[in-house]
Amino acid sequence: MGWQKTFTLSKRAKGCHLVTEEVASQIQAGLLGVEVGMLFLFIQHTSAALTVNENFDKDVRKDMDMALDTIVPESLDWRHTDEGPDDSVSHTKASLVGTSISIPITNGQLNLGTWQGIYLTEFRHVAHTRRVVATIL
């Protein structure tokens, strides 16, 4: 039997943001009684993404943002800029990082590694809230 909930992450501007605790608080009800399962998180946006990475050193988040800016620079001759100069660059970065992640559940807890956390990678300069669909199987 599955469990699903759509929730909204707090408003954040461009950058890589650790959201593990915010996600965990939203899915507590779905974790109850799950001995072995999977959490699937899907972000319902084309200019932000989800990933799992280092959760301890804040410099990792800054480095990731810098690396993505280097790989996909805003300075390219983007054609789709209807919502501003960060429009197509945000869509491209979101495709590279991805719209979904999966995390094992063991004994009602997310089974992340010692130094792992859930990141929202926000690619828009202006702060946005983001909708996430959590599915537990």
From TrEMBL:
Highest taxon, organism lineage: Eukaryota
Gene3D superfamilies, per database record: YjbQ-like (2.60.120.460)
InterPro entries: UPF0047_YjbQ-like, YjbQ-like_sf
Record-stated family: Belongs to the UPF0047 family.
NCBIfam families: TIGR00149_YjbQ
Protein name: Secondary thiamine-phosphate synthase enzyme
